[in-house]
Each structure stands twice: as structure tokens, then as C-alpha cells.
Amino acid sequence: MTAEIISIPRAALHEQVAQRLRQMLVENQIPPGAKLNERELAEILQVSRTPLREAIKMLAAEGLVELLPNRGAVAVELDEAAVLNTFEVMGGLEAMSGELAATRITDGELSEIKAMHFEMKAAWTRRDLSAYYRLNSQIHRAINAAAKNPVLTTTYNQVNARLQALRFRSNQDEEKWKRAMGEHDRMIEALENHDAAAMSKVLGTHLQNKLDVVIEQIRQAATQKTVGTRR
Predict the structure, then answer these.
(1) Do residues 137 and 151 both lie within one domain?
(2) 168-172: which pairs have CB atoms within 8 A and are 24 or more residues apart?
């Protein structure tokens, strides 16, 4: 497990550590079900255990980490039922965000989203999955922010945190990644046209395609685990 050494302002140490740990969880540097080794992580991030433990508590509150008796912190591993239930809720939140954003978005907000979209397309062209996903997440959050509903945003962020790692891995298939990029093109078009119905539809399709890939990956992993156990 490796991570870039980061310079962390003391005033917000645990928040900065949480941000880096969040990235490691999302990008599978810490895989689902793995124990978070405090000594190893403290060395990698060059921090003491006090801010590290505060950061882990933050991630536990977000649903990314489980705090288990006698085991410490473990990266959350969602089973198929939990994934289906979470995506079902996320589908409604994404659709509402898209509909409201299409009608409420300002010219400035649209310009910022379009700029991020062009950056994301450049990352996709050079097959930089990490940069692509970072920009992808920023775009979805910006769409949600453009809906201008703080209750929706709070709920959206809470549910979305549980799906970040799964959404990241869903782009590792070339054809499916290309399809996702095309769906983002249609999101920009719908926002430009202030077309709430089109925005809701493309976001629904986008999330359903993500879910299909995630379920396929979960079932493949389960099959491989079963085969490995029988050997």
C-alpha cells in the first residue's frame, strides 16, 4: 500500500488525513473488508495516531469504515442486497438533483460544470482514471449544489459516500467507461437546455448502468472466491 506524502496544515490535520484515507478507500488502495493498520497508515501519511484515529472516526460516521470490537477499523464491504438498496435510494436523489438543477442552475454554475466536463474528457482521453473520477465526483456534487436544496445535499452526500469506491471501479471496463462519458455529454446538453425531464432520464440511466456493472463485479468476485475455496 502506497500513498503520496502530503503536507498537512496543523489546524485541520484530522480532516486532511480523512480526505487522503477516503481517496485510498475509493481507489481500492485499502480494499473492502481490509483492516486499517494504524501504525502503517501513520507512517504512510506521516502523522501521529491521534489525528489518524479522529479521521477514522469521521469515515466511520460517513459509512466508509466499520469500527468492530477487538478488530479495530475495517473498510466497509457492501453485499449485493446493501448495494441494491443504496443504489435505489441514490437513484431518487440523483433524479431530484438533476430535475431541480436543470431549472435552477445559473449561468455561472453551468460554466463551471462545463469547464470540469472538458477537463474530465481530457482525463478520459489520456485514460487517467484517478483524475477522471475526481472530476466526475466534482461534477455530480456541483449538479447537486445547483439544485439549491440543502436538505437534499446533506442526504445526497451521506448516501453517496457509501458508493464512491463502487462507482470508481465501475469505470475500469473500457466500453462501459466510454458509455459513461457519453452520458455526461448528454447531462451537459440537458443542463444547457434547462430540460428537467431529460436531465432526470440521463442521470437515471447513468446510475442504472453503474449498478449493473457493480452487481456483475460483486457476483464475479463471489464466484472466484467460491472456486478458490473449493481448490
Answers:
(1) yes
(2) 168/26, 168/27, 168/28, 168/129, 168/133, 169/28, 169/214, 169/217, 170/210, 170/213, 170/214, 170/217, 171/129, 171/132, 171/133, 172/129
3-class secondary-structure state, position 34? coil
Of 23, 56, 75, the one marking the end of a domain is 75
Give the model confidence (pLDDT) of 44-92 as tens digits: 999 999 999 999 999 998 888 999 888 889 998 888 898 899 999 999 9
Domain boundary among 75, 94, 118: 75
Please report whether residue 182 resides in a domain: yes
CATH number of the domain where residue 111 is located: 1.20.120.530
Three-state SS annotation for 193-222: CCCHHHHHHHHHHHHHHHHHHHHHHHHHHH
More confident residue, 196 or 227: 196
**What is the spatial distance between Cα 189 and Cα 195, in angstroms, rounded to a whole number?**
9
59, amino acid identity: L
Q: How far apart are CA 87 and CA 209, in angstroms?
A: 11
Q: Which domain holds residue 143?
A: 80-226
Report the distance separating Cα 101 and Cα 194, nearest Å: 8
211 close to 80: Cβ distance less than 8 angstroms = no
| pLDDT, tens digit (0-9, with 9 covering 90-100), for 92-106 | 999 999 999 999 999
**Which residue reads 463502487 in cell numbers?**
166
Residues 63 and 89 in one domain: no
